[in-house]
């Protein structure tokens, strides 16, 4: 049972437990705290987003459910797409977990509250405004371009990535994002980069309303520029219509930076990182 595996994972000071839950859903465990990013733990997209052009069908079942996540301390959503802010997962979590704080882009606060999350538990995230989580832990929201940088009428970005500081280690979870001018400067130095690598295509995806991301070559280059020690590819394996093969990802890394460490996860897999 994955929940028990997560809770029973013993870490030394400075170590981070990384658990992959599929798509861009990643759970971090550090110093007894649990941080969850872009939790998509249902088949909501399959049931609600299919069209004549695209059939969404999960390749594998979720390794854990929202109903089991009563232990999570911080929940991050990068943007409003259902595989990043899932109504079923967030609604289930809100029923069993009364301590979690939800960090979401300011323009989608009402959307997330509409899924059952108590509005008092939601922290509206603004690009460049650091969120202090607990002692030694913080999160810096950064604009994400999916595929473009988009703001609301108040100039607030509707898609964000999060650079979190966990003691001496920094982790960047990009959400869905393409590389844009200034992203490297925003990031500074980052130890662990969690990046989408499925790319974008006008004919195969965009005209079917499938918005794209950076590809594996771009993700590897970005990691090189920010001095990353580990690349975790996301958006790679859950939907055949919007992913890439593991082999093509490895080829891209090998062609771009043979010294960059990376890890391709299986659903529910644990990885322990130490600086």
How is the topology of this model organized?
Layout: H1 2-8, E1 15-22, E2 25-30, E3 33-37, H2 44-48, E4 74-76, H3 87-96, E5 101-105, H4 109-113, E6 122-125, E7 131-134, E8 137-143, E9 160-166, E10 169-173, H5 183-187, E11 192-196, H6 216-225, E12 230-234, H7 246-256, E13 270-274
Parallel strand pairs: 3-4, 4-5, 5-6, 10-11, 11-12
Antiparallel strand pairs: 1-2, 1-13, 2-3, 7-8, 8-9, 9-10
Count of discrete structural domains: 1
Going across the major beta sheet, what is the strand order?
6-5-4-3-2-1-13
Distance between the termini: 28 Å
Instruction: Please state the second-level CATH architecture.
Output: 4-Layer Sandwich
Major sheet details? 7 strands, mixed
Shape: globular
| SS-derived structural category | alpha/beta
Oligomer: single chain
Provide mean pLDDT, rounded.
96
DSSP strand (E) fraction?
25-35%
How is the CATH topology named? Metallo-beta-lactamase, Chain A
Tell me the Rg in angstroms.
17 Å
The fourth-level CATH homologous superfamily is Ribonuclease Z/Hydroxyacylglutathione hydrolase-like
Number of helical segments with 4 or more residues: 7
**What is the CATH class name?**
Alpha Beta
Output the helix-strand order. Answer: HEEEHEHEHEEEEEHEHEHE
